[in-house]
Amino acid sequence: MLRAAGVGSGDEVIVPAYGNAEVAEAVVLAGAMPVFADIDPLTYCLSPVAVDAVTTSRTAAVVVVHRFGNQADTAALHTLGRRNGFLVLEHRETDASHDGSAQRRAYTTYLNGRLTGVITPGGNAPHSDQYVVRVPGNGRPDRDAFARAVRARGVDCHVPVKTPLHRTPKYWRDVDLPETERAADETLALPVDASLTRRELQRIVSACNSLGGLLQPAF
């Protein structure tokens, strides 16, 4: 898409640093420079305000990644694009198939209503097989300790983005992306695939709710 749009040497392309190394790599392969902007803390997608803050006269495009079933604010980004003369290209994560989507939504609603001790994604019930919660930190690796404890109770879980791209050796940038870094430190993906049984859902709730003490402030 970048090459077809005429993006190349000397151009800058704004991308998220929260995951999707293949997007930044595509920018490099096109001969352009990836520029990282911060994300919206609710959707984990590029923040239009953050994009506006890093736009320059060399900005040729923005690559929007729709994440965890959430949609980026493309209307606001297209408005910025028209104002500043850059393209808005969309990239969707490989997501769940539509088979069982109604079941996943039901599971998401069930978990949203019963989980305590973690910050749930809310009532929007996105179409995704990654149910991403936040385990807020307080100076300790709470999310990692939480994940280990949940796994020990028989619940599969994983960290969706371990290190933001701007903190990796290949794409290191001395930039301030607080929401991106906070999301990388706090997010944890719990399973909501359609094969889950009611007992497995109850195990997820029981395991997570029993660990609420990990979220207490450290004195």
TrEMBL record:
It comes from the Bacteria. InterPro entries: DegT/StrS_aminotransferase (IPR000653), PyrdxlP-dep_Trfase (IPR015424), PyrdxlP-dep_Trfase_major (IPR015421), PyrdxlP-dep_Trfase_small (IPR015422). Its cofactor is pyridoxal 5'-phosphate. One of its GO terms (biological process) is polysaccharide biosynthetic process. Keywords: Aminotransferase, Pyridoxal phosphate, Transferase. It holds the Pfam family DegT_DnrJ_EryC1. Belongs to the DegT/DnrJ/EryC1 family. L-glutamine:2-deoxy-scyllo-inosose/scyllo-inosose aminotransferase subfamily. This is DegT/DnrJ/EryC1/StrS aminotransferase. It comes from Streptomyces silvensis. The lineage of its organism: Bacteria, Bacillati, Actinomycetota, Actinomycetes, Kitasatosporales.
